[in-house]
Amino acid sequence: MSQLTAAQLDALRTLRAAYPDAEIAIIGASALAFHIDMTWRTSVDLDLVIAVSVADLAPPKLPSWRRHPKLEHSWKTDEGVLVDLVPAPSDALDAGELVWPASGHRMNLTGVRQALQSSNVQLDLSIGVASVPAIALMKMSAFVDRPYERQKDLKDLAHILNEYPSLDDDELFSDEVRAMGLELGTTRAFVLWTPFARDRG
Question: Out of 81, 118, 165, 199, which could bridge 169 as a Cys pair, Cβ 3.0 to 4.6 Å?
Fold first, then answer.
């Protein structure tokens, strides 16, 4: 469903070339657009999670990209694409947060492991696209952390609950759902949360 621009695809190729073995997944609104209609919302940046350490996410590996002087996760490519890169080394995933060394800022990584593990759309570059449930979990976490700065996440979550899954998705009509007699809105929320409920047993 999503149509990445030529410049965004070039950015992904550059990143894959710099980190040939790392797990990489698209997250955020760009990832949502692979699953549901997001034409109402224009996202100018490309949000990505990459399974490397902060130290490995270094300018020498991306010589044509410029790093934001204050925002350690923000980059701009030589073609002008804004890229947010969230490094996700295993120790940070286990701790549930990433501490940026320069600023000391603590970034909540809730949902990031799920984003990497649930990537169910693969681009030709072996770069995954996070599932809708994983994206929703990350947006919930981001809003709780910074409620006055992340109003767009609430809008995205409302849109998800109105559109996901689509009305022709078999999960909406499973025996489990039918037995509960849920209304459509509640059914969609149930299906959205089901992957995490199963993980918890």
Answer: 165
